[in-house]
């Protein structure tokens, strides 16, 4: 699997173009700077098979409609975030301005979905906490996990924004901690990492073990 990372927008979001072989490709989180993403597609002789969104925040979805207008393909997002992701409440002018919903099919993702696009199989892991519809996207053959704003190298996503929930974040991190240590992690911001490295160095992942030791099944 080829993975091209394009850092886009005011908030430096990692947008990904991934493919097994041309021409089909998956675009993850086209949040801004659609011309840069389209240039990667053009340079590699690719067309979009699917726009795949880890969550609905404006810095991750604001270029979806403009890209769809130039290169139509289905859009996939969890239903909880679809409720607001393409509405006027989800913008931050002048940097991120809502363009509305793309005029094409929208696939509503759910936990455990195993799907295929561009010749690549992936599984959806619902990880609420940052937003109600946050998901991580796992490619089992490649042992690769795209974590959006759930898990970063050395940190995790905020839970103090509308729809955020600290208890849900703890539960979601617990799910991610069960992935094999060698799983490569591509987050929505910042450098790549691995599950093993995050369990060893990330305070929020280490804290899960401390909670287990101190309070059994209790979660905070």
H/I helix tally: 7
Reported for the largest beta sheet, the result is:
6 strands, mixed
> Secondary-structure element order, as H and E?
EEEHEHHEHEEEEEEEHEEHH
Order of strands, main sheet, comes to 1-2-3-4-5-6
Tell me the span between the first and last alpha carbons: 38 Å
- CATH names the topology as Metallo-beta-lactamase, Chain A
Which value, in Å, is the CA radius of gyration?
17 Å
Mean pLDDT: 94
DSSP, total strands: 14
What is the name of the CATH class?
A: Alpha Beta
Helix-strand category: alpha/beta
Write the CATH homologous superfamily: Ribonuclease Z/Hydroxyacylglutathione hydrolase-like
Q: Uncertain spans, ≥5 residues at pLDDT below 50?
A: 213-220
Give the overall silhouette. globular
Count of separate structural domains: 1
CATH architecture: 4-Layer Sandwich
- What is the percent of helical residues? 25-40%
Report the β-strand fraction as a percent range.
25-35%
